[in-house]
Amino acid sequence: MHSAEQVSTERRRTSWLASPQTQQLLANMATNSQLNRVDQSFLTMPGLLLESTQVPPDPVRELLVRFGLEAESRDRYVLNVDSVTMDQVGLQKLMGSGCYRAALELTCRFLSAHGQGPGQRGQPAMHTHRTLQMWLARVALLMKLGQYAVAHNELKAFGNFDSPDMYFEYYPDAYPNRTGTMVPFSLRLLHAIVPQYASQPAEAIDRLQYVTDLAASILHNLESGLTEDGQSPLPEEEREASLHLWNQRLLATKYAMANALLASKDYDLAIRTYLSIAVIEPASAPLLYSLSGRIYLQLGDLLSAKDAFHAAEAKAGDTSSDVYRKLHSTHKGFIDVTNGRYQDAFRHFQAVLRVESFNPVAINNMAVCLLYSGKLNEAVQVLEELVWKDPPSHLQAASICNLCTLYELQSARANDKKLKLLKMVAKHCGDGFSVESLKLST
What is the mean pLDDT of residues 224-237? Predict the structure, then answer.
């Protein structure tokens, strides 16, 4: 038995507005006990397109072997799919250890066991809330590993997640008395933004608009005192919790829309969307105005950039606060870089570190300033200090790539320095580390 509070929480979390066609199909099933299934053309029949054998299990170990670092290869220990349980707990353990490839293999095994593996696309399969949670993890992992086209193509089988078998009502025996969608909202959002990374930003914008419109319709129902589906009155205490959840979901969709517009190079609309979010979420306004200023700088509009930066600092409040000081110094640094005043910019980025000792943006920009000031060795030192100070936290692909680029400019023995980094990566990173960032040549 579930408490009234649990029932309300479940209803809130799984609410969605099915299309009229899907509503009719589910209603027919509910009223006709002889109709326990619908035509297959209305169902979702996904399958994996990327097999585990197509994904190298551990590129870091492969590099160690290729460069003759046998001892480091033997000493390297990372979790693999056989080290954990074949469920969400095991998946979270792999992902928490940075073992994204092993986690991807786990999703392959799990979905294959549920009739949705390689070669099973187009075949009937039973969906559960667990299989859809696993699809969410799989798509996120494919994105993390840069397999954008695979993620895009695997998701095509789901359409817009409106098939009858995406709802609890389709499985009355497995989910008695449960209603709503089995699809996590995060999966809907990922499905919407994937095309942006597969060089199809217009498709991403269309999908995001679809999610935005439905979320807005649900909010309209709630604001009218009704349940999410608009079918019945909702007590005030439940309505407030639902409004909070769906406002947060709509906000997440707006952020995704702004990012998609930026990717499609619709800079004006992207900036307007970011600033509309600043109105809804005032706490984020300083960072959103700052981001808008940086976009203006990339477009060469220095005057608009300065206006946006000033607005960001004004919204940060007290000039003695850490937020204000960090933004003010960062903005000064960006403007000086734009004007070619690299030594002045360096001092401003350095000032950021007096407020926040670990700020990757400031540190990387300090290295850039030193490089353009003709101080290559000092630029290398800045990035090396970042990476070596706390390897488990600071071994990020972007910083490693920047450091390896500087090594190439600095010395003919760049590969030796890169191999030293590889040894450190082998010691501290999981199988999901992007070895391309090391820029190693054989």
Answer: 93
